[in-house]
Amino acid sequence: MGVGEIELRKRLWWWVYVFDRFTSILHRLPPLINDADVDNDLPIDCLNDLEATELSHPLPGERTAVFVFLQYVSLGKKLSRILDLLYTMTQRRDGARKIMDLERDLRVWNQNLKADGIPFDIGITGLQHSSDGANHSYESTNIWLQLMANITMTLIHRPGLSFDDTTSEFGNCLKACLDSGSAILFLVETSNIPKWLRNLSLVGPATIFQSALVYIYSQFKYHTFKPDGFPALDTSMGMVSKGISILTIESTRATRAQGGFYSKSLSEIIKTLQTLLSSLPAMQGLVETPHVMNDGVSVSNAPDTFDEQNWGGNALDSLNYMTASDWMGDPSGPFMGFMDLGES
User: Where is the Xylanolytic transcriptional activator regulatory domain (predicted)?
Assistant: First the structure.
């Protein structure tokens, strides 16, 4: 077996591994691959094709598509550790320390990426371009890595929202979810990531909904006292509106890809966000209640919008089962850029 085929087999194995972790997160199922059984070597960062008989390494400072794939695998392994330590029924003690350790590990990965020419910071809103911006294929994957890193940070801190809300640990977790949520919404709205690349991430309607929802949650949580660094009301309303806009645009794609069922579910979720959004000024005492929305729905008591009957339970359940592929459509395209290795 030649070295080219060996490297291809490594890439395929690790793609299956990461896909297993993504499936576990998206559908709330246990992983099929046990980390204790994994002893496969990682792919080598090289330029080989299937017929290669010897390894061809990149020049110093040169970055290949395999380098990006290795970051993808690294995030997959971090997600696996997050599932094991935080999303478990048997090892739930010492959660604050686990969250701190997982965040530190992710930020070290982020710093190493910056040293390799992909300069972005997790939780920072805005398109942060790499030093190789002339290559559109790599630029797309760099933006996608920003998106994936912020999703990973959110998954680390979301369990911390169950902490006592008077503790600093709760505040730190909520702040991290807000920062990464805003980055996710901005990246999805403003970046032109190809559909095939978005299909390789955890970005789906549920991610957009949750990124917007955390801003509503923070306003209800801190409507009488707002700690330093937390968003003001107008900022939160702007982020929720951004989430509504993204879901509204993408609902047409869901209709084409999956039919009316998912489109109806998205419509219910959009209406839920609109109802909650309209309740924020009333909750802050900025308008008299009841506050009437544009579609004529009256909100007589802001906290009541969190009643289960107002949440469209069936729509939320459907939303959780809509994967990235469900709403982004055709996943065809180059696999992590491997088909584009010869392009400049």
Answer: 5-110
> What SS3 state is found at 256?
helix
Q: For the residues of 47-106, what is the DSSP string, one character each?
A: ---TT-SS--PPPTT---HHHHHHHHHHHHHHHHHHHHHTS-SS--SSHHHHHHHHHHHH
Closest CA to 239 of 277, 209, 212: 212
Please tell me whether residue 291 adopts helix, strand or coil conformation: strand
Eight-class DSSP state of 272: H
Q: Which two tokens stand for residue 13?
A: 């194995």
Give the whole-angstrom CA distance, residue 214 versus residue 246: 16
Q: pLDDT (tens digit, 9 = 90+) per residue, 13-34?
A: 999 999 899 888 877 788 999 9
pLDDT tens for 130-152 read: 555 445 555 677 788 888 999 99
343: number of Cβ within 10 Å: 11
What long-range pairs does 68-71 form, CB within 8 A, spacing at least 24? 68/138, 68/141, 68/142, 68/145, 68/336, 68/337, 69/11, 69/14, 69/43, 69/336, 69/338, 70/42, 70/43, 70/45, 71/109, 71/113, 71/145
Contact 21, 79 (CB under 8 A): yes
Question: Whole-number mean pLDDT of the chain?
Answer: 76
Phi/psi for 187 (5° steps) reads: -65, -40
Supply the pTM of this predicted model.
Answer: 0.80
Total length of the chain: 344
**Cα–Cα nearest to 193, from 144, 242, 150:** 144
Residue 331 confidence (pLDDT) above 60:
no
Answer yes or no: are the C-beta atoms of 6 and 303 closer than 8 Å: no
What pLDDT shows up at residue 128?
57
**Tokens at residue 168, please?**
């600093």
